[in-house]
Amino acid sequence: MNKILIYLILIVFTGSSLAEELLIVHTNDFHGHIAEQKDYAGAARIAAFVQELRANHPLVLFVDAGDAITGTPVSSLFEGEPIFDVMNAMGYDVGLLGNHEFDYGADKITRFREIAKFPLLGATAFDSQGQVLSDSPFIIIERGTLKIGIIGILTDTTPLLITPHGNKNLTFKSPAEVLKQLIPAIRPKVDFLMVLSHTGFTEDIALAKQFQEIDLFVGGHSHTFNKHPVNTGRNRVVQADHYGRHLGLVKINIDPERGLMEFTGDLLAADELPQPDANVLSLVESYESQVRDRVDTPIWKTDKRLSEEELQPILERILARYVNADLGFYNSGGIRDNIEAGIITIRKLWNIEPFGNTLVTLSMTGADYLVLLSQEPKLHHSAATIEPEKRYTIATSNFIAAHAIKAFGSSIQVQERDVLIRDVLIEHITKYGL
Ligand SMILES: [Zn+2]
């Protein structure tokens, strides 16, 4: 018997007859991984699981906590649009804007909202007119006799994470401030109040402790594998890894008379999910078949697995060499996949560099460069060798350049190279390997 059936039987036999039992299936940071791939479930197996659950249980809610797009060729080539189409077929009830939904500028979010048949929430992001950029800050959904409130928040560090292109004059309010305003209006109307959050795991735990009126935080952004719900007082925090490598399932028994009774939750690995749903699979295939010829071409072979961290200096060297710069700089968050031992295909480079960033050379002092490096989550490997008084040319992305211009103004010089970083990497690795 598979694990899901056992889980369902346990639910049937342990569920209290008085309480309503709500099952929440959650994903986050799916990043365009609609096709099944080693370790990643793909859209069709996730959809099959949700269908099986809905067939056996009346109260199922299927939600996503943001960053659905960007991370695979099928997402990047069609600017994220197929992902929302596939999510419709998967049967999502609610989604959330993450920082990557801004990858093609705020106007594109209007397009995503048109495609998605489920509401895309976001209470903290506003356009230049002060209008909320999402479908709604929150919704109230009825399931059985339960009224469920869902508020959507995304991190107010978003301006630092997104391309300035198409994203000028946006406002991101503090999630805590927004929750403070919304909770008194929504809490009295609902039996269960949850937050879909794209702020990161640590931030969610702090917010959950602060806002005990909220029952559950379903999070994303930090790509955290968090096996069971974290107890933060009378509420809980969950997050389900990333790229569909795990699927989150939370079971809550709610007694509207006496308040919450029970929380359990788990992450299911891709190989624990049922066989793919045929309809979703054929929709995924219709998109993937359009990119396959372009990307499933082998360009090199390696006998060594390289983590994102190990790739950083290698990719930096490739960028520097391409434009004869002193140094290359690749921000660690910009490397979106590792390299497994074996054949390297063009697809892999799309997965590593899905953004479509272009190559730029910066000329700046070592002192300024050290400030830039200090914004990295970990000490950059080159930091110790940088001389503050010396001037360096640094090959990097237009994304980093835009943030550097904001921080250092005219003390740095920028030269656009009008070539995609992804293409530079593909060309180099095809010719010279890693
Ligand atoms: Zn994110």
Question: What structural class results from the helix and strand content?
Answer: alpha/beta
Q: How many separate domains?
A: 2
Please give the share of residues in helix.
25-40%
Count up the helices: 14
Number of strands: 20
Which outline best applies? globular
| Percentage of residues in strands | 15-25%
Give the averaged pLDDT, no decimals.
Answer: 93
- Outline the low-pLDDT stretches: 9-17
Write the layout of secondary structure elements.
Elements: H1 3-14, E1 20-27, H2 43-56, E2 60-64, H3 73-77, H4 81-90, E3 95-96, H5 106-115, E4 120-121, E5 125-126, E6 138-143, E7 146-154, H6 158-161, E8 171-172, H7 175-186, E9 192-198, H8 201-210, E10 216-219, E11 230-231, E12 236-239, E13 246-255, E14 259-269, H9 278-295, E15 298-302, H10 308-323, E16 327-328, E17 342-345, H11 346-352, E18 358-365, H12 366-374, E19 391-397, H13 398-408, E20 413-420, H14 421-432
Parallel strand pairs: 1-2, 3-4, 7-9, 9-10, 10-12, 16-19
Antiparallel strand pairs: 1-13, 5-8, 6-7, 11-12, 13-14, 15-17, 18-19, 18-20
Bound molecules: zinc ion.
What descriptors fit this protein?
6-stranded mixed beta sheet, alpha/beta, 434 residues, 4-stranded mixed beta sheet, globular, binds zinc ion
Describe the structure.
The chain is of the alpha/beta class. It has two domains: 3-288, Purple Acid Phosphatase, chain A, domain 2 (4-Layer Sandwich), CATH 3.60.21; 296-432, 5'-Nucleotidase, C-terminal domain (5'-nucleotidase,  domain 2, Alpha-Beta Complex). The protein has 14 helices and 20 strands. The chain has helices spanning 3-14, 43-56, 73-77, 81-90, 106-115, 158-161, 175-186, 201-210, 278-295, 308-323, 346-352, 366-374, 398-408, 421-432, and strands at 20-27, 60-64, 95-96, 120-121, 125-126, 138-143, 146-154, 171-172, 192-198, 216-219, 230-231, 236-239, 246-255, 259-269, 298-302, 327-328, 342-345, 358-365, 391-397, 413-420. It has a six-stranded mixed β-sheet with strand order 6-7-9-10-12-11, with helices on one face. A four-stranded mixed β-sheet has the order 2-1-13-14, covered by helices on one side. The termini are far apart. The relative contact order is 0.13. The model is unreliable at 9-17 (pLDDT under 50). The structure holds zinc ion (ZN). Residues 67, 98-100, 198, 221 line the site of zinc ion.
